[in-house]
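Q: I have two molecules that I believe assemble together. Could you output structure tokens for the complex as a whole instead of separate predictions?
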Amino acid sequence: MLASMPRWDPHAEDRLREAALALFLEHGYENVTVTQITERAGLTRRSFSRYFADKRDVLFAGSDELPDVLARAVRHADGAAPPFEALLAGLVDVAGAFEGQAPLTAQRQAVVEASPELQERGRTKFAAVTDAVADALRDRGAPVSEAALLAQVGVAVFRTALDRWTDDPDAGELSARVRETAAELAAGMGAVDFTAPPSPSHAPPRP
Amino acid sequence: MLASMPRWDPHAEDRLREAALALFLEHGYENVTVTQITERAGLTRRSFSRYFADKRDVLFAGSDELPDVLARAVRHADGAAPPFEALLAGLVDVAGAFEGQAPLTAQRQAVVEASPELQERGRTKFAAVTDAVADALRDRGAPVSEAALLAQVGVAVFRTALDRWTDDPDAGELSARVRETAAELAAGMGAVDFTAPPSPSHAPPRP
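A: Yes, here they are, computed for all two components at once.
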């Protein structure tokens, strides 16, 4: 049946990923086998093994590198930039790698959201990204605690921009959305008077 | 042996918690039994059962309520306050409940950090807090995506302030540290020019 197929298919990886995402969305991630994925893609298990370790890998291939890639981008940002600017430069840089991938990214997110197991893996992944970014900011001279805070905020900005982009890919590329989201957050926070207690009942006078 | 003890000990809960934390720190959370905890505290298993469901509960009692408590504080903040100000009011409000608990909080954090199982539980807990806060901000009229972003940032501010406070409790109460941390973040973000690409190589001109 597969004898007439070319040995090397330049689109095999994409076809496998698309087939897997379609099946995960139809039947739920837990209920799909690698055999079903290869059959849907019209490829062999050997092709599958060339690109992915297992079915989880179809979903997360590439994202295991995200901590290192993002940390490197933050380290390599303009040496004179203050911490948040370096972080933003890194996020914008990495966002560029997602260009044209909005539909696949949206599908991947939908699959993850439907599975508690994958949501848990997603949280672990974002924690690893946050730690790597905090390391990079410390290497640039930020104090430990500031680096950890900015890293968490940077990851929140990136995740929010990613959601906005997959919801409405035509409103601009991910890199532009990252910058817009960060600007919106800065504006919202900048409007607050931090010196005054937000309300008398919440902050009794200190002796 | 326990016949001479009073039936009701007003400090039993604190004694059990302190004994448990000391044992967790000495032997690792996984290696400590409820019997060891009650023996160290000089109390019975029945006393233990009055306050805690199991040994995990000793560590997390109270924090299961955190999502609801924080969401309620955000909902009840001054109705005219913009989203981030309402969020900050809620965080400051809840921080007040931690007053005087810095040493216990520091011990609890050290136990959690030493155990991958507890770290995972901690991440799940913070995700639940984030979701509850995002719900509360939506109820106040914030758009879904902005509510989710601010909730993540608020939780990051709270966690950072908590770390700073347990590291150095004498530098001020948690509620003051929350406000300082938020102000520092706003200042760091406000210094960035979001309209200009951070560096030419990171943002090619758009058509």
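A: One point stands out. The radius of gyration of chain B is 21 Å.
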